[in-house]
């Protein structure tokens, strides 16, 4: 089967959704399918790369990049609000001849609509919205994605929480929405550069683009209180690019020798961080799934977070969830994890087993294929 994955951003840029696209594409290849990626020459948010090729082979995948018209993207929206050549999209569809098209995200509506409208009637279409709560400024996305949700045959989400939000926000009938959790895989690799991990110190890791909604600033505040009460030395490591420069600036002001910020980690570095850290902690404002938490658990890391979004639904083992933004409780649990290695080990082992038993890319890929070819059915 020929499968085209449509996403606004892709490698060399690698965020959370881009890792999902990469892992899923790799799994499809393993199963004998032909896979291509249709994307743009932008990295998040709206950074144009003129040196990225229009077409290239990346890790066995054909990657097509659509040149924007014009190159300049409006500065108030993270996904590039610009136009793309319908003729170019049509030519890619003719060249690759996909049997299935899978759309990732609810923000790149220009690309989504053009691909759908230019596809022949035999192609199966699946939409994965990767939903986040709509701010007041983004309410205009409701009618756009309501229409797109009606145009595709099926919609897939990763949790019951996301299912309810997509149904309510975009008026998609729940009978048309399937829950297909993403997979998780732990890669055993070595880093290409020295990382700021210390032996004899409890390394607390947080992974995600530095921003208000990811909650790193609140995490730093919790850490600064907890570190005064721990009997074991510890340090906090924030790994991820900068999305919100104001939040980043505030964190830098608070940072000391016990807070490390790494904005340049690649895949190899990230795997090394997971392998050699002791605790994973993050307190986002919202999560529709929480892939980084499951990734951390796949490496045997105990997780500390709070009760928001789908996290209680997803993190059923190996994690401690405090009440939403309860700083006192978060500090107490962080101190306990830092001081008690046995507690960390027990949680980590439970979480690792839980992920191995419940989240795999092969299961995710099989569920998608079953759905789009009609062997499966949307959740009632």
SSE diagram, text form:
Layout lengths: L1 E5 L9 H15 L3 E6 L2 E2 L3 E2 L6 E4 L2 E5 L2 E2 L13 E2 L1 H11 L3 E5 L4 H10 L5 E5 L12 H11 L2 E4 L2 H11 L6 E3 L22 E6 L8 H11 L7 E6 L5 H10 L4 E4 L4 H10 L2 E3 L9 H8 L4 E4 L4 H4 L4 E4 L4 H13 L1 H18 L2 H13 L7
Parallel strand pairs: 1-2, 1-9, 2-6, 9-10, 10-11, 11-12, 13-14, 13-16, 14-15, 16-17, 17-18
Antiparallel strand pairs: 3-4, 5-6, 7-8
- Average residue-wise pLDDT: 91
CATH architecture of the largest domain: 3-Layer(aba) Sandwich
CATH fold node name of the largest domain: Rossmann fold
First and last CA, distance = 27 Å
Sheet of most strands: 8 strands, mixed
Beta-strand portion reads 15-25%
Query: How many distinct domains?
Result: 2
CATH class of the largest domain: Alpha Beta
Tally of helical runs = 13
Number of strands: 18
> Roughly how much helix do the residues carry, as a percent range?
25-40%
Radius of gyration: 21 Å
Q: Helix/strand/pairing class, anyone?
A: alpha/beta
| Overall geometry | globular
Low-confidence stretches: 188-193, 375-380
Q: In CATH, what is the homologous superfamily of the largest domain?
A: Glycogen Phosphorylase B
Strand order of the largest sheet: 5-6-2-1-9-10-11-12
């Amino acid at each position: 089967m020929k499968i085209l994955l449509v996403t606004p951003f892709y490698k060399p840029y690698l965020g959370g959704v881009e890792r999902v696209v990469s892992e899923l594409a790799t799994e499809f290849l393993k199963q004998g399918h032909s896979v291509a990626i249709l994307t743009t020459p932008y990295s998040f948010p709206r950074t144009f790369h003129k040196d990225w090729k229009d077409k290239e082979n990346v890790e066995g995948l054909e990657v097509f990049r659509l040149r924007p018209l014009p190159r300049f993207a409006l500065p108030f929206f993270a996904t590039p609000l610009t136009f793309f050549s319908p003729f170019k999209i049509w030519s890619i569809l003719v060249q690759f001849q996909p049997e299935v098209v899978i759309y990732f995200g609810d923000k790149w509506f220009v690309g989504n609509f053009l691909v759908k409208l230019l596809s022949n009637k035999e192609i199966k279409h699946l939409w994965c919205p990767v939903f986040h709560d709509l701010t007041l400024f983004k309410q205009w996305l409701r009618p756009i994605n309501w229409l797109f949700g009606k145009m595709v045959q099926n919609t897939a989400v990763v949790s019951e929480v996301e299912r309810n939000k997509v149904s309510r926000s975009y008026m998609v009938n729940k009978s048309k929405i399937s829950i297909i959790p993403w997979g998780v895989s732990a890669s055993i690799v070595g880093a290409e550069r020295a990382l700021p991990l210390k032996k004899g110190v409890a390394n607390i890791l947080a992974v995600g683009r530095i921003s208000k909604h990811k909650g790193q600033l609140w995490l730093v505040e919790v850490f600064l209180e907890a570190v005064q009460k721990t009997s074991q030395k510890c340090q906090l490591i924030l790994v991820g690019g900068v999305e919100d420069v104001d939040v980043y600036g505030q964190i830098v002001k608070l940072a000391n020798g016990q807070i490390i910020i790494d904005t340049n980690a690649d895949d190899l570095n990230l795997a090394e961080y997971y392998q050699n850290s002791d605790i994973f902690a993050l307190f986002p404002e919202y999560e529709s799934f929480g892939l980084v938490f499951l990734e951390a658990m796949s490496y045997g890391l105990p997780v500390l977070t709070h009760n928001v979004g789908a996290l209680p639904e997803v993190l059923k083992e190996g994690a401690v969830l405090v009440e939403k933004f309860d700083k006192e409780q978060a500090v107490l649990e962080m101190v306990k994890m830092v001081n008690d290695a046995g507690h960390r080990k027990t949680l980590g082992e439970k979480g690792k087993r839980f992920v191995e038993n419940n989240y795999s890319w092969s299961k995710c890929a099989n569920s998608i294929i079953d759905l789009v070819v009609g062997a499966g059915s949307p959740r009632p």
